[in-house]
């Protein structure tokens, strides 16, 4: 499927708050690759990690699946027997396009697509749970409850792959990482105006937290051995494990 170029913030009048609607769906693959440094590396490694940690007779979840990039990465790498993939997103526009993408894929691991609020979703018998830049769109006060529900729905030895945009307590470092991220977007063809408009549109929708905040929340839920395995500027990915019995 051909990718449309993201020009959403190049046109007048400027868009309001960022929403995962049909306009975003139509340009999403181009948008995320040009906006999130290391995104394709994260997706590739999600597949490898699922291959390593998926347990036979369990489920693997992609929470906030968007167009199914992580779902596809897991689907093509999982070797364990009798595994079901569950892909969840609350945007019907995303789910509708994701279904088209998955229907065109020939891998045999079954996928259940759900259009629902992941805060209300049942997480059951999960050996791998992926949240790629999803938690940051959940109100901060409700994040701990969601992480606890994920933990409770996982089997012993399960792994949570949590990718998030970070903020930093040191103001100089935080500003530097932000500037480097904006420069990354500029070198990928976004104008200063587009960068500024996107930042205004998303600042009340995407609320980043510090690495320490994420680690503390994961530990409070019961996860152990949490490791930062990827970081590029202010974008990161963590591994958190449910202890084996």
UniProtKB/TrEMBL annotation:
Domain of life where this protein originates: Bacteria
Purpose of the protein: Catalyzes the conversion of S-adenosyl-L-methionine (SAM) to carboxy-S-adenosyl-L-methionine (Cx-SAM).
NCBIfam families: carboxy-S-adenosyl-L-methionine synthase CmoA (TIGR00740), PRK15451.1 (NF011995)
Subunit structure: Homodimer.
Keyword Nucleotidyltransferase: no
Family the UniProt entry places it in: Belongs to the class I-like SAM-binding methyltransferase superfamily. Cx-SAM synthase family.
Reaction(s) catalysed (UniProt annotation): prephenate + S-adenosyl-L-methionine = carboxy-S-adenosyl-L-methionine + 3-phenylpyruvate + H2O
Residue ranges of the TM segments: none
Keyword Methyltransferase: yes
Residues in Methyltransferase domain copies: 62-158
Protein species of origin: Teredinibacter turnerae (strain ATCC 39867 / T7901)
Pfam families in UniProt: Methyltransf_25 (PF13649)
GO term, biological process aspect, one: methylation
SUPFAM superfamilies noted in UniProt: S-adenosyl-L-methionine-dependent methyltransferases
Keyword entries, A-Z: Methyltransferase, S-adenosyl-L-methionine, Transferase
EC number per UniProt: 2.1.3.-
Binding site residues for S-adenosyl-L-methionine: 39, 64-66, 89-90, 117-118, 132, 199
Gene: cmoA
InterPro entries: CmoA (IPR005271), Methyltransf_25 (IPR041698), SAM-dependent_MTases_sf (IPR029063)
Protein name: Carboxy-S-adenosyl-L-methionine synthase
Molecular function GO labels: carboxyl- or carbamoyltransferase activity; methyltransferase activity; S-adenosyl-L-methionine binding
